[in-house]
Design goal:
This protein is of the alpha+beta class and 133 residues long. The protein has 2 domains: 53 residues; 57 residues, Arc Repressor Mutant, subunit A (Orthogonal Bundle), CATH 1.10.10. Helix content is 38%, strand content 16%. It is built from 7 helices and 6 strands; from the N terminus they run E-H-H-E-E-H-H-E-H-H-E-E-H. Strands 1-3-2 form a 3-stranded antiparallel beta sheet. Helix 1 crosses helix 2.
């Protein structure tokens, strides 16, 4: 019988972190390993078996419908479907800048805190003004 290793020793043996080995054990990716008296015993010659998630494993390529092309989104079209106030991430995407820049210039954009958690929102009118609409 091959010698057994602890998760830390096996991690060093295969060049991975101990946390990764423990995750593999929890996910059943080391089928040769055994839990004996609440301690893992991993054979030195154990091989990791990566498994596909069940949702992915059950789907064949032929069963997946091709993606429909996305319609071109314009700023005007997007603003028509959005509420009066827009969250920081959406405002950044529409303006083509980072969310950090939107937060940094929230005062100039007319941003205000909204809701129970005080989320920062930007008025749609400010986005229209910046876009020249």
């Amino acid at each position: 019988m091959a010698s057994t290793l602890t998760p830390a020793a096996y991690a060093e043996h295969v060049g991975a972190s101990e946390r990764s080995v423990r995750r593999w054990l929890a996910d059943g990716e080391l089928p040769a390993a055994e839990l004996v008296a609440r301690r893992w015993e991993i054979p030195a010659d154990a091989v990791r078996v990566q498994r596909l998630p069940e949702a992915v494993a059950d789907v064949s390529r032929d069963a997946v419908a091709p993606r429909a092309p996305r319609p071109a989104t314009t700023l005007v079209g997007a603003l028509e479907t959005l509420p009066i106030y827009v969250d920081v991430d959406t405002a950044a995407q529409l303006l083509g800048i980072s969310p950090y820049a939107v937060r940094r210039h929230a005062d100039e954009l007319g941003g205000r805190r909204w809701g129970l958690n005080g989320a920062l929102v930007i008025p749609q009118s400010a986005l229209r003004e910046l876009a020249g609409l």
